[in-house]
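Residues pack. Consider this:
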Amino acid sequence: MREILPEFLRLLAQNLPAPLYLVGGMVRNFLAGLPTKTDLDVAAALPVEEIVSATTRLGGKVHAVYPKTGTVQLSFDGGEIEYTRFRTERYPKGGVHTPCEVLPTQSIEEDAKRRDFTINAIYYDIAGDRFCDPLGGMEDIKTKSLRAYDGKKVFESDGLRLMRLARFAAQLNFSVHPDTLSAAREYKTNLRDIAGERLNSELSLLLLSDTAYPVSGKDAPLRGLKVLRETGVLFELFPALKNADGMPQRKDYHDHDVLTHSLRAVFYAPPILEVRLAALLHDIGKPTAFYKSGKPTSETPAAFAGHERYGEPLVLDCLKRIKASNHLTHEVSALCRQHGYVAHENTRQVKLRRFLSENAWLIPNLFYLMQADHSAQKGEETPSACLSRLMAEYARMCEENVPFSIKDLAVSGNDLTALGLKGKEIGEMLNAFLQHCMMHPQDNQKNLLISRAKRIYKRKQKQKEEV
């Protein structure tokens, strides 16, 4: 393993009075045969002053020193290293993620016990070129088992590890040890103490986990979501999904309950965060729609009419919980709101075009979500008749150069101002042109639209004079 390490790190290890160990993701990935382009995290039983002094002598740079946690941020020729002194930690009650007490230790075993999972607690002695495995993580890598040395301590002290458990299971294609799964279930409420931004980051990595490593597999996000569901962490993250768990759907349309269908929709969605998050949340309004129908005991539920409308505030609440960005919130909520549009065989072209024009900014993600929703019903991966109509009409609109927004029109607000139009008259005229050109794209020419604007303006002026 020494050969893949930067020269500066090897030199630093040789100039310290105690062994310097590489630990964490790079060691885990090396032993698992995975790409090793991860963070360089090192540890030793040395005070930060020793590391700072040696780094400076060797020409490296020290960017930040945190004496309380025994952590130092270093760099060398553009590469970055984080050093952490061997330590034990004590956390306040709950899962706040930040220790209230940090004590240095000389014991590598004690340092290993504070880490999340055994596979991340394998140490590589850089100068000695040997592995140190205090908790049996190397065997767990061989058996592809995700295990916490002490599940109670791991999840009781840091609620974010509940999300990391599912994310690692997804990315690494590892199974979760039964004791670890049980401990996660016991401490699932500690997720409530974690900041939304951290939850957002972990959930995003999980939803895109099939892109992490070649071994992750296409079903990686589904695998991770199943761990969240089995531990109950999913319902701490998004409480409204609990009502969808086990809720039956019409057998002629669906093979699965509402929540299972939603998880499968994530599986069928392409690796685009907006689409996969929308796939997870798109049917969150179905339980509300079902009970609003007045048939809560029906064995064959109705088609959950209006579930998109009922789901919108629930989707927004979910996105607020994870502190989603404005962009993510805007697009995911819109995708969920529009995913159920049905283009019947006899739907008029003008209605199809109006829908596509108003939602052009969501395409192709809207089509991806509609297809994932359809495929998750019965495993059918070919487009539905509804989606086929929408896609065909959208293709025709593009071929005909239909303007999808006001900025695509051949005239601008300045052109209309020059004709004498003012204020809201300009907006109304541009919107009228957009609607006209939606069906008659050949008229999107400046001279034609200007002539049309003159006629309309002249007619309105005459009507005002008559009044």
